[in-house]
Amino acid sequence: MKRNRFGYLAVVMAVAAGLACSAPAVAGETYQLGLSLAITGPTSDAGNPYSKGVEDYMRFANDTGILGDAKIDCPIRDDMYETAVSKRNFEDFLDQGMIFFLSYATGANQALAPDFTEVQIPVIPASMDSSLMKASPYIFLPIASYSHQYVGVAEYVAANHKGDGTAKVAAFIHPSAFGRAPLADFEAAVAAGLKLDLVEVVEHGKDLDNSALLQRLASKGVQYVLCQTVQSPVATLLNDAQRLGMTAKTFGEPGKITFMGAHYTGGNDLIALAGTAAEGFHWTTSYRVTSEKGPWTDWQLDMAKKYGRDDKTANSHNYASGMMAAQVAVEAIRRTREADQKVTKETLYETLNQMNGDKVFTSLAAVGPVTYSTTDRMGVDNVQLYVVKDGVFRSVGQPFKPKYLK
Predict the structure, then answer these.
(1) What are the residues facing 215 on neighbouring strands?
(2) Where are the domains of the chain?
């Protein structure tokens, strides 16, 4: 039977309507949120589709009446990956009565963490730096931290390396707090027994040619490069490696380099940039991808179609990431209303901390449920390993939790 293009979305809309009926009616009320992120600037290849995901899910929530007669107002501002601009945006949103903040960069979140605590506002960042959970009790990571994803891919190297001796790896990272985020936990995992030799840490610049870097790493015997950055520099690295004939055709091929990375390094966006050079790239995230068919793919593509997004955006895991951040915020509002509580910063914070046990929240976008408590503010604990095969990402095994991180 031919599938109705909007069939799955119709089911979601019907469920949303039913949920709306169960919420206490507060006619005409508008809940003020805010999103500040890099639509332009150094990480815009991630921030741009992320912003569209947030925008579309907020529109969907209003269009389908998830909150009954109440609405959500979530202005989106470009901060260009500049902390000072993020801070101004945050303060402006507060002046507008914001009760829930959707933030972006690691550095900006670290700088604003004291402010989040002072005004007691719940925050869902696009950054998955584990240190943010310590920086403020009001920051809730949507999925597994960069450390979990990075150590997860490193554990795969250690477990599957077939060469003599310990696998030699290099870290290729973004020159920012975001890029450096998982290094301490990675080094701690090695110290705790993860059998890898970290040969070099490279903070990349804006180089258009990585030939010298690749030849230097090869001369040091590096067989695996673990990336923590965004797609553009990874695509440049992969294209250069392919041109030089240095890319491994099989995992851990002797004398060649296998390229791997965490969350913002991969996804369909990377394949669009790197083409055939992305073949064999291994990648971890807690999100599902549209190249693996299932209800999550139907949900994501139907949402993108409904709001007129192009194919590149529709198939981006960054688009899904933005939708899920918005989804968790909307769900917190819905649950607070359902409990006959006034929706405020304080009650939303309490609701998020109760998302555990039989109150977990499941999003089609992720490979596991979102769980929060006063002692656990990392949403989805599992990560999934993917690899590019025949031009698309395919899952490798089942979702897992890294052994060397709690």
Answers:
(1) none
(2) 7-144+293-375, 150-285+384-400
Q: What is the pLDDT of residue 1?
A: 32
Rounded CA gap, 364 and 377, in Å?
20
Amino acid identity of residue 303, one-letter, is: M
Domain 7-144+293-375: which CATH number of 3.20.20.370, 1.20.1530.20, 3.60.9.10, 3.40.50.2300: 3.40.50.2300
> How far apart are the two ends of the chain, measured CA to CA in Å?
46
pLDDT at 20 over 50: no
> With bands split at pLDDT 50, 70 and 90, how would you rate the model's confidence at 196?
very high
Q: What is the mean pLDDT of the chain?
A: 92
Q: What is the pTM of this model?
A: 0.89
Spatial strand order in the sheet of 224-228:
196-203, 167-173, 224-228, 258-262, 282-285, 383-389, 392-400
Say which amino acid occupies 32. Answer: Q
Structure tokens given for 279: 């073949």
Bridge partners, residue 383, by sequence: 400
Choice among 25-34, 146-155, 364-373 with the minimum mean pLDDT: 25-34
Closest C-alpha among 257, 307, 273, 235 to residue 61: 307
With CA atoms as reference, report the closest residue to 120 among 322, 350, 340, 321: 350
Q: What is the reported pLDDT for 52? A: 98
CATH topology of domain 150-285+384-400: Rossmann fold (3.40.50)
Strand 71-73 relative to strand 30-37, pairing = parallel
Q: What ranges make up the beta strands (E) of 189-333?
A: 196-203, 224-228, 258-262, 282-285
Confidence of residue 164 (pLDDT cuts 50, 70, 90): confident
Nearest CA to 307 out of 105, 104, 58, 118 is that of 58
Using alpha carbons only, give the angle 309, 315, 318 rounded to the nearest 5 degrees: 90
Whose tokens are 């294209």? That residue is 239
Task: Answer yes or no: is pLDDT of 7 > 60.
Answer: no
